[in-house]
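As a warm-up, study this chain.
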Amino acid sequence: FMREYSYRPASIISVGVGHASERDIWQWLLPDARLLGIDPRGNKHGWTGEYVQAAAVAPGTPGEVTYCGTCQSIKCDKAAEHRRPFTVKTTTVDIAAGHLPAPHFLWLDCEGGELDALRGAAGILRQTKWLNAEVRERAWTSTYAEEFDAFMRAAGFKLHYAHPGTVDRLYRRR
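Now compare it with the structure written out below.
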């Protein structure tokens, strides 16, 4: 879609690197774009580009939070019962990515932490025209997708495409 609209971001910010499978596509389609991964796990899964090992959070969040290794989320309310909970450092997207050239493309896969990450990305969002987010209903809320869409509308974005077979949602600035 970005190519169809002639959008060529100067930087791609991946919040929640996961297995970094998108990285290969970005490097192929946008070889000149700078890549930044923000993820609380130390295993980069072959990530190339800059990497910040921290959870992306809203401003005012304490400097460390509990990360559930089972749910791969800082939002899990049962982390103590699950295997592998650990403490991770926090940052905001604005702090981690503020040095990158605009315009940006944001890729969010934070397992329920997407809104917190965006609340800490006000400056980056102003320089972003496209954003992809993995938005799924979680145990702690049944209205997360609605809340996410409302936040995106208030930030000046509209839902461009929701993949019918996944939880990926692509937003474009109005």
